[in-house]
Write a structure and sequence with these properties.
The complex is a heterodimer. Chain A is mostly beta strands. In chain A, 0% of the residues lie in helices and 52% in strands. Chain A has no helices and eleven strands. In chain A, strands 2, 4, 5, 6, 9, 10 and 11 form a seven-stranded mixed beta sheet that branches. Chain B is globular. In chain B, strands 2, 4, 5, 9, 10 and 11 form a six-stranded mixed beta sheet that branches. A five-stranded antiparallel beta sheet of chain B has the order 1-3-8-7-6, with no helix packed on it. By secondary structure, chain B is mostly beta strands. Classes of the chains: A mainly beta, B mainly beta. The interface between A and B is medium-sized, with 31 and 26 residues.
């Protein structure tokens, strides 16, 4: 009964380093999302994937790339990390019986120094 | 201008009080409205969702939508300390899971025993 699983839970990067945040869901959902959450800013959509093989930009896509590897997995890549990308990153999926609901992972706390 | 605006609070009320949380939005195409609750260091969880104008009640929680004013509210009756969390409104244009979900910035609520 895992739902949405994100790895890693915590990460510290140096400016300029790259990394990939992993996300997997076991609910057979079509849509998956990446959000970042900063104090006072709420959840801002980075990228989303309406279905396997498609991806679209959200509100704040600059500095990120995504891959919808298959129906279960949706990864977020930072090619050259910047301190402005210090944030909590949430992956979510939706597409079950009640399509409006998005299920969230526990988040990845990323610090770029 | 952000598509969804929400007062960030924080809001502190005594136990048993009625709480009113609000969001405004600018995109008249939004049709589905949701409220998520987020406890500290956790991912958001769906509390309620509504479609079209009107009220929807679930226990101590009532969600209200006024499309003509582009204004939504969440009321919590008989508030409990366990209701202390951040509440985020969210909206989407289509019932389809292909439609992206846009969040407000969240209101931090604290219920004093």
């Amino acid at each position: 009964n895992a739902g949405v699983t994100q790895t890693p839970k915590f990460q510290v990067l140096k400016t300029g380093q790259s990394m990939t945040l992993q996300c997997a869901q076991d609910m057979n959902h079509n849509s998956m999302y990446w959000y970042r959450q900063d104090p006072g800013m709420g959840l801002r959509l980075i990228y989303y994937s309406a279905s396997e093989g498609t991806t679209d930009k959200g509100e704040v896509p600059n500095g990120y790339n995504v891959s919808r590897l298959n129906k279960r997995e949706f990864s977020l890549r930072l090619e050259s990390a910047a301190p402005s990308q210090t944030s909590v990153y949430f992956c979510a999926s939706s597409g079950g019986q009640v399509n409006t609901e998005a299920f969230f992972g526990q988040g990845t706390r990323l610090t770029v120094v | 201008q952000k598509e969804v605006e929400q007062d960030p609070g924080p809001l502190s009320v005594p136990e048993g009080a009625i709480v009113s949380l609000n969001c405004t939005y600018s995109n008249s195409a939004f049709q589905y409205f949701m409220w998520y609750r987020q406890y500290s260091r956790k991912g958001p969880e769906l509390l309620m969702y509504t479609y079209s104008s009107g009220n929807k009640e679930d226990g101590r929680f009532t969600a209200q939508v006024d499309k003509s004013s582009k204004y939504i509210s969440l009321f919590i009756r008989d508030s409990q300390p366990s209701d202390s969390a951040t509440y985020l409104c969210a909206m989407r244009i289509s019932y389809s899971s292909a439609s992206k979900i846009i969040f407000g910035s969240g209101t931090r609520l604290s219920i004093r025993p």
